[in-house]
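To start, an entry.
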Amino acid sequence: MRRRHDMRFVNAHLVGLVVALLAIHVLQSADAGLIYWLDHGGFAIRVANMDGTGDRTILSTSPYPNGLAVDPDAGTLYWTTHNAGRIHRALWDGSEQEVIVQSEHTPTGIALDVPLGTLYWGENWVDGETLRGCIMRANLDGSDAEVVVDDVAPLHMALDLSADKIYWTDRGGEHNVIMRADLDGAEVETVVDSGSGSLVTRGRGLALDPTSNKMYWTTHSDGLYRADLDGQNVELLADVPFGTLGAVTLDLDKTAMFFNWNGDIYRATLDGAKQEEMILDAGSVIKNIVSVPAPTAIVTSEGAKETS
């Protein structure tokens, strides 16, 4: 049985590292919710309501933000930055920023196991002409970091806490693949292999629906896919004729998903139907989208703050 951990921590290109924190006023309702995303090229984290209104930048960060995760119960954001080699944490209005991990390598995707008070993230580095990496785990404050899975090159990742599994897109071998392992690093296996095709080419996003036994992912310039969690029954949900696909996230309560194409964010049903453009000019390169329920209270933060 999984035990509860009590730890809690209560595209406009921006110039410099000064954050103008905006007032956030979210009214509770049955349909309330937020989506957060990384503007990779703009060095920023942005947020909007799930209906596309209220698009705003809540903080600037070091170049280049790579991975994003949210603890909605604690109202906390976690993100990685490429050039700085850091994992950052802040309240979800952008205040109380801090660096919790400083790495010698490049942090990539990040995911949270909130009940056990741990975070997982990927790290990549180049050894000669070979891309190498690992998956790390630490407490939510960044302490007690350890290698969980070695000799991989993870990009994006997601957790299936019901099965104690971690999934990630991997680009270190001959082919781009989707892999999974137990949360302790055991039973590493490949579940989707692109072979010589483009099925997982430069996988840009990954999201799980464990209840329905489904995973979703995007590729750089090909499409939005869905398959069973063991990699069987692959479906192409959205075919991209040109441009770049990015992140994907699921709102299972509303049976909807959000994904980005060429800097705009779209919403669709989980089968890929009823696609609609929701947010225009959401960023130059969107790396991650995360959907969360609305805060349980009004969050307000004012003034300016330097990033770490």
